[in-house]
Specification:
heterodimer, A: 835 residues, alpha+beta, 7-stranded mixed beta sheet, 6-stranded antiparallel beta sheet, 26% helix, B: 373 residues, 2 domains, 3-stranded antiparallel beta sheet, 13 helices, 40% helix, rod-shaped
Chain lengths: 835, 373
């Protein structure tokens, strides 16, 4: 809502020197979000005067028609002689009154005016358009043509009210009444402690039986409908300057007198109005729900198919307006310029249900000035005053005659009261205001207040947002000043700190960053194409994804089922920007619907839902496990003065998985795997033991060459993804301290030849199981292939360390343990002890 | 050594004369002193202390002396040899020290060589800033609460007193999840704030409840320098007996001081949120200029645009309707809530100029933030 300061002053006697910034500060403190104060005309400098066009000479031979005019500007040019001006506009004739800016003046934007030669003549000034004067859109184009009564030479800066300040207020949804000058003036009056001249306090004739016939079939959708008629309107009558200027300053475009007046009254009182051309309305005005399939062409020229929930205004032929949203084109007020002008109007001032209007506006994607106000709540008591104000202005400005008939259809309703403990505002704020202050502040808001400790508060009709005791507490506290609230620190009960899960998430991030990975936080939006690029089979569960109704990009309507596509995009972005040795990680949620999610039931809000109801709601949500993932490309260790570098490999990816698992206290089991998007020969399954069972927790390895190509990644990019929630379940809990033996170690090395297809992990497991309790540690220190081993063979060399808790091992004991280990490996993996 | 000489002639044992012994000693001392390195010293030792050295030969002659002269000469030669030995040891130590020093000098390297073999990793500053804030509240006794990002509308809106057709609901620019039947609304959204976690926390716990809820949230804004459709919020919720707006203000002030410096104040401005009543916008005193830039063009402040205050977030007293929906007796308990965006805080705390920098995952942006913030 844009509120011109000059207009505001009409209702509140603000101190004379008070600037827009001052008022802004006061209103902000009172809770109105005044986003800025626009200074209109601050940079305009005269002389800018009314001129009367004396002669027009059409200049020929230019690319566009040009006029050389002489204009009477009175004494404004110092000589009284006609002013010679070249003008490119054509919407004026000899004798018209226009706005002339003279040399020496300055127009908005630092546009200095001087006599200058143009089109072969000297132009001593300019005939102005509204746009050049910063007046906003007048909807007409061309230069301003004033009505004839203005004297040549009159100062036009004042005449056109060019200098003003406009408060631009972002009205919050609870303050619908501030979508009017009346509401803003009320806040300003309270903020300054000044009386308000309420523009809605008008003498309104009592309703009678001979007004325009109205039938309301849906009193819940429309609890009030006032109809008035005005006849004998002069179709030539135009909106006066003050009216046009106020509309423009408030951000609306002047259209025609009747429409301008309804808009003006809406801005003034907050009541949306509609004026019908009486000659185009067929019989009784009705209010009902639309019938399925009914159609309506609204004022914006759109033909709409109505919904059975839509509330419509009808005449005998059917719908003529979408109630509270927009009128129909068929009964539109006709502008005199368009042909036959309107001479009789029916004025509608009605009150519609906020939810009905909100739904209709949303359904038809049609937000209007009217719907914006009805959605936020309009003062139902202001309808008849608004109708009266409209009638008055039509009589005054269009020469109309108000008909005596006054129709008012009102669904009975009582005033709303709220019971409020007098000390509630004190208890909410933590400040002792006292009953007297509370009562006074509530009265300033417009409430009637009775009672002592328990206050019975009747809220004003324009505040439908005031429904609960805390609403009233807020009114008191904001008027007493939020800035005056003290600070105190409550004492929560002693806490337990972070949960093990939260500590794990932090550790994982630190461990990966410590290992050289840089964290990226990627958007979770993906497209089918990403799943295709990953090479997922048609039945891969990762293809079952949450889909958005309104994605930002139609190319990415899904939520990620894996962290990898986001990391790939980040890797690629870095690579294209010239960073080639990259190690990135992300931890975050993936979204894994099963497809069996139920639609959630709409639960009540007037009680705690039962545990079953909450469970039903949760069952509507996809599984959202937390994962960690890495991608690597380029060098893991760079070349330098120390020697060669080392490219990142599948092994780094697997190690990243181990590093994450270690933070969860889990030792991963690694197995050969074949899984998209990985290289079929370089893919590891990462497993952990949960409740005695091996569970897949992730994958790691080198990406499939087709995947790197599809995503535009560097060759041999490697990746790892692991599910933290599963790792957490696999955690073994507190560590039991090992016994540290001080007896000497006995080291035995063995080299085993196995088929190339045998997994090192299996050989190791066999050695461990065979070595028995004396084995302290075992380490693979060499892998060797060569012709002397034979085709398809490899040699694995292990260092075994044996130690006893209670004695020095003899060479025989250590050898026996080693032999047992080797036997186990031979049995289970077909290994042969080498040389 | 030759056999004792029974018949001796003192004249023939020239070598045992005191002057001779002294000369031998002095020559040895001079030779050691002159030895420039351990090799030279080794040679000098052989020459002056070896089996064929003058002193060794002189020593051998002692046996030929008459008994009374034997003792005297023995003493003389012994003292000389002692002095020479001592000098040798001293010189030996000296030269070894010199040699060791020389070897270490030769082994010297350029320790300024870079060792960027594995480039350093880093955590995202949004993550670490979230954790910093969590830690402030955990230190006060709050718990950290988390919840799903794909959330039921009931948690995201209804329970928070967003009525189904209230304009406030449309203000949130919500991403809606498609239902199985595409024509039906699924009732599931991407959470627009972390407030649903507050509701879940109240349902999960008995009051008093003191929780801080960090997390990712979603709104349908296009990415530009100041907007991102995916961003981070931290919200806090306190439910207890007798909590007031003053408690809210004091709590946020404590956070602001912990993160930005002692003595900073906060300011509340009335606003509207469905889930709080009364509601407020909360500003913190600008930690850079502390208000000195206001009306003072010479001390213009970029951080607060010379306003003196930085907008932090929305807050208020938990609407009793929200308490009812979460099963908490609004007659007994009251509470406050506060929420703010982490991206914005990162921007003004660390002079991030473009929101996109936080989104793109460029390692050049993230690395300098390291592990903590």
């Amino acid at each position: 809502m844009r509120a011109p300061l000059s207009w505001l002053r009409e209702y509140v006697d603000l101190p004379a020197g008070e600037t827009g910034r001052d008022v802004q500060a006061k209103l902000i403190a009172a809770g109105l979000e005044v986003e800025r104060v626009e200074q209109l005309g601050a940079d305009i400098k005269g002389p800018l005067v009314v001129g009367k066009v004396l002669t027009i000479e059409e200049l020929e031979g230019f690319r566009k028609p040009i006029r050389f005019c002489t204009v009477d500007v009175g004494d404004a040019n110092g000589t009284g002689e006609p002013q010679e001006i070249v003008c490119g506009a054509r919407n004026f004739s000899v004798g018209d009154k226009v706005v002339v800016v003279l040399p020496g003046a300055e127009l908005p934007g630092g546009f200095a005016i001087a006599a200058r030669k143009t089109y072969g003549r000297v132009s001593h000034g300019m005939i102005c358009s509204g746009e050049e004067l910063g007046m906003g859109d007048d909807g007409k184009g061309g230069i301003i043509v004033l009505s004839p009564e203005h004297e040549a030479g009159t100062d036009a800066i004042e005449l056109l009210q060019l200098v003003d300040e406009v408060l631009d207020i972002a009205v919050t949804p609870d303050r619908g009444y501030c979508l009017s000058m009346r509401g803003i003036a009320r806040e300003a009056a309270t903020a300054y402690g000044l009386p308000l001249r309420d523009p809605a306090l008008l003498d309104v004739p009592a309703p009678n039986g001979y007004g325009y016939p109205v039938q309301v079939a849906d009193p819940t959708g429309c609890d009030r409908f006032t109809a008035r008629t005005v006849t004998g309107l002069d179709p030539e009558a135009r909106s006066p300057i003050w009216l046009q200027r106020r509309l423009q300053k408030a951000g609306m475009r002047p259209v025609s007198l009747a429409v301008d007046i309804t808009n003006y009254v809406m801005l003034e009182l907050g009541q949306p109005l509609h004026a019908y051309d009486r000659s185009r309305v067929d019989g009784t005005l009705g209010v009902r729900r639309a019938l399925p399939g009914e159609k309506l062409t609204t004022l914006d020229g759109t033909k709409r198919v109505l919904d059975a929930e839509d509330l419509v205004i009808t005449d005998n032929r059917g719908p003529i307006g979408l109630a509270g949203v927009m009128g129909g084109a068929d009964t539109e007020i006709a502008d005199h310029e368009a042909g036959q002008g309107t001479t009789e109007v029916v004025i509608e001032a009605a009150h519609f249900d906020p939810v009905v209007v909100a739904r209709a506006a949303r359904r038809h994607k049609l937000s209007s000035e009217a719907s914006k106000r009805f959605e936020r709540g309009v003062d139902p008591q202001a309808a008849s005053a608004a109708a009266q104000r409209t009638v008055d202005l039509l009589v005054l400005l269009a020469g109309g005659t108000a008909e005596a008939g006054v129709t008012e259809v009102v669904a009975p309703s009582g005033p709303r009261t709220i019971t409020l403990s007098a000390d509630r505002p004190d208890r909410v704020a933590g400040v002792e205001y006292g009953r007297e202050t509370v009562v006074r502040r509530l009265q300033e808001v417009g409430c009637d207040v009775y009672g002592q400790d328990e206050l019975i508060v009747t809220v004003p009709s324009w505040r439908p947002d005031l429904t609960d005791p805390n609403d009233l507490a807020e009114e008191v506290i904001r008027l007493e000043g939020y800035e005056n609230l003290p600070s105190t620190l409550p004492q929560p009960p002693a806490g337990r700190g972070l949960t093990p899960r939260q500590r794990l998430h932090r550790r994982v991030g630190r461990a990966l960053a410590g290992a050289g990975y840089v964290e990226a936080l990627n958007y979770p939006f993906i497209g089918e194409w990403a799943l295709d690029h990953l090479g997922l089979e048609a039945d891969d569960p990762r293809r079952t994804a949450v889909r958005l109704v309104n994605p930002l990009s139609d190319a990415e309507p899904l939520l990620r089922t894996t962290l990898l596509p986001g990391l790939f995009a980040a890797l690629r972005r870095n690579d294209s920007r010239g960073e080639h040795d990259l190690a990135l990680f992300e931890t975050g949620l993936v979204f894994r619907p099963t497809g069996d999610e139920l639609a959630p039931v709409r639960l009540p809000v007037d009680r705690r839902p039962t545990d079953e109801e909450i469970a039903a709601l949760d069952a509507a949500l996809p599984r959202q496990p937390r994962r960690a993932a890495v991608v690597l490309a380029g060098a893991r260790e760079r070349a330098g003065w120390w020697g060669q570098g080392r490219p990142s490999t599948w092994a780094d990816a697997v190690e990243a998985g181990r590093a994450v698992a270690r933070e969860a206290g889990v030792e991963l089991i690694v197995r050969q795997d074949q899984q998209a998007p990985f290289h079929p020969g370089r893919c590891a399954a990462l497993l952990a033991v949960v409740d005695g069972e091996e569970v897949l927790v992730g994958n790691a390895g080198e990406l499939h060459p087709r995947v790197t190509k599809a995503f535009g990644l560097p060759e041999r990019t490697c990746a790892m993804e692991i599910e933290l929630d599963r790792l957490e379940q696999a955690g073994t809990g507190p560590v039991t301290a090992p016994h540290v033996s001080a007896f000497p170690v006995a080291t035995q090395d063995v080299a085993l030849v196995v088929d190339a297809s045998v997994a090192a992990a299996d050989v190791e497991a066999a050695l461990r199981s065979g070595a028995g309790e004396l084995l302290e540690s075992l380490r693979l220190f060499d892998v060797f292939t060569g012709p002397q081993l034979g085709e398809g063979k490899k040699s694995l060399a292990y260092a075994l360390r044996f130690r006893a808790d209670d004695r020095t091992l003899t060479a025989e004991e250590a050898s026996a343990a080693r032999d047992a280990a080797v036997r186990a490996a031979v049995e289970s993996t077909g290994a042969v002890l080498r040389g | 050594m030759s056999a004792p000489n029974k018949s001796y002639d003192p004249v023939e044992v020239e070598a045992l004369k005191p002057q001779e012994i002294e000369r031998m000693r002095d020559e040895a001392l001079a030779a050691f002193a002159a030895a420039a390195d351990l090799e030279a010293l080794r040679e000098a030792k052989a020459a002056h202390m070896g089996d064929r050295s003058p002193l060794a030969l002189a020593n051998r002659e002692i046996g030929a002396l008459p008994p009374q002269a034997k003792a005297e000469a023995g003493k003389r030669v012994g003292m000389a040899r002692g002095a020479v030995n001592k000098a040798l040891a001293a010189r030996q130590t000296e030269l070894e020290a010199e040699r060791d020093a020389r070897v270490l000098v030769e082994e010297a390297v350029d320790v300024t060589l870079p060792h960027d073999r594995v480039p350093a990793g880093a955590r995202h500053p949004l993550t670490t800033l979230c954790e910093r804030i969590e830690d402030v509240f955990v230190a006060m006794g709050y718990e950290v609460a988390e919840g799903p990002e794909v959330e039921a509308e009931w948690f995201n809106f209804d329970a928070l007193n967003f009525e189904p057709d209230h304009p406030a609901r449309a203000m949130q620019d919500t991403f809606f999840v498609e239902g199985k039947d595409k024509k039906q609304e699924s009732g599931v959204v991407l959470r627009t704030h972390t407030s649903p976690v507050q509701v879940r926390s109240m349902l999960d716990r008995e009051p008093p409840v003191y929780v801080v809820c960090p997390g990712r949230v979603y709104r349908t804004d296009e990415l530009d320098a100041t907007h991102t459709p995916v961003f981070h919020q931290v919200e806090l919720l306190a439910i207890d007996e007798g909590l007031t707006m003053a408690d809210l203000k004091g709590t946020i002030e404590h956070m602001v001081r912990s993160l930005f410096g002692e003595g900073l104040t906060t300011r509340l401005r009335p606003n509207y949120f469905p889930f709080t009543e009364p509601s407020a916008e909360l500003d913190m005193e600008c930690y850079v200029c502390r208000g000195e830039s206001v009306g003072n063009p010479e001390k213009a402040c970029r951080t607060c645009s010379s306003e003196g205050w930085i907008e932090l977030g929305g807050c208020g007293m938990v609407n009793p309707r929200v308490l009812v929906a979460a099963g908490i007796d609004p007659e007994k308990y009251s509470g406050f809530a506060f929420g703010f965006g982490i991206e914005r805080m990162l921007m003004f705390r660390h002079n991030v100029e473009d929101m996109r920098d936080m989104v793109e995952g460029d390692v050049r942006f993230t690395r300098p933030f390291g592990m903590e913030i």
